[in-house]
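User: Hi! I'm working on a homework problem where we have to compare a predicted structure to a textbook description. Could you give me the structure for the chain below?
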Amino acid sequence: MPTPVKTSFPRTYSNSRPASPKPRAGLASSQKQMLSGARVKQADLILFTTQLSVMLDSGVVLSDAVEAIADQMRPPVFREVTLDLAERLKNGESFSAALSNYPKIFSSMFISMVKASEASGKMAEMLQVLSGYLDADAETRKQVKSAMIYPIVMLLMAVAATGSLMFFVLPRFTRIYEARGTSLPKLTQVLVDFSALLGDPVFLAAASTLLIVGGFALSAWKQTVTGRKTIDWLKVHTPILGGMFVDTVLTRSMRILATMVNTGVNLLDALDVMKCSCGNYYFQCLWESADRKIRDGYQLSDALMLSPYNRLIASSIIQMLRAGEKSGQLGQVCDKISIFLEKKLQNSIRTTTSLIEPLMIVIMGAVIGTLAIALLLPVFRISSVISH
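Assistant: Happy to help. Predicted C-alpha cells:
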C-alpha cells in the first residue's frame, strides 16, 4: 500500500498505486472525441471540485479520489469523463493535461489553477478556492437569470392574451358583421386583417423562411469583427441592462483575478484567463492592452488607466488596485473589490428589475388596451347592426 499523501503532491501527480484488479477498458477514439465536446451542469462541476478537495486533503491519492468520485456521479456523461480522467492519471498524465481534453467542462481558469497547484504542491487548497469561486459565480448567474424571468413571463402572457383575443374573439365579431352586411370599425378591421394574415399559410411560410435566413445571416454577421463590436457595444451601452452587464463582467473578472493571484498564478496568466472569460470585445481589448503595458514594465493599475477602454472600470477600482500593488497585497485587494462589485451587481439587478416591471406593465397595458378598444367598438355598435 502506498503512503497517503497529505498536502504535498509531485509536480506531475503520478500515482504509485498498483493497477486496479478490475481494469477499465479504455474509451474508443470516437467516444473520446464525443466526450471532448461534452458539457455538464455547474452544480455537478462544483460538487466534483469540492469532493476532490476534501479527499485530497484527507490524504487520498489523486487517481483514487477521481475514480471514487466517478462511482458516485449520476450524470452518465460526467461519469465517463471522470473515469477517463482517472485512467489518464494512472497512465502517468498530469491532472492539468488530462483536464485540458475537456475544454467545455473545465475552463482555462480551472486548468491554469490546477497547473499552478501541481507546481506548488497545494492542490487541495487550490481546489477549495476553485470551489468557492465556482459557487459564487453560479450564484451571480442565478441572480441575473432571476432578474430576467419576470419580464420574460410578462412578455409571454402578453403574447398569449393577444393571440387568444385575435384568433378566437375577433373572428366572431367578423362573422356577425359580415352576416348583416355592415363594415367593422377601422381599428377592429385592422386587427382582423392582421390576424387573417397571420393565419395565411403562404405568409407564414414566407415569414418563416425570412426568419431562418435572417437568423443564419445574423449568426454569420456576429462572427465578423464589425458584428462583434456592434453587438458588444449595445450590451455595454444599452440603457438599464448595460450597467448590469458591465457589473457582471467586472465582478467575474475581479473574482478570477483575486482567486488566481491569491493562489500563486502569474498576473499575466490571470489576465489571459480574464480575457477568455469576459465574452465581450471591449473588455477583451481592455485586458489585452493591460497585458501589453505590463509586459512593457507598467503596473496593473497604470496599465488599466492607459487603456483606450478604461472607462469600463471606475477610477475608484483602479485606485484600490494601485493601493494593493503598493502594499504588496494585490490578491487581497482584488478579493475585496470582487465582494464590493458583487454587492454593486445585486443593486444593479434590483434597480433593473424595478425599472423593467413598470416598463412591461406600460407595454402590456398599451397592447391589451388597444385590443380591448378594438373589441369594445363593435360591441357598442352590435345592437344597431343586429336591428338592421
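For your comparison, note the following. The chain has 16 helices and no strands. Residues 275 and 283 are 7 Å apart (CA to CA). Good luck with the assignment!
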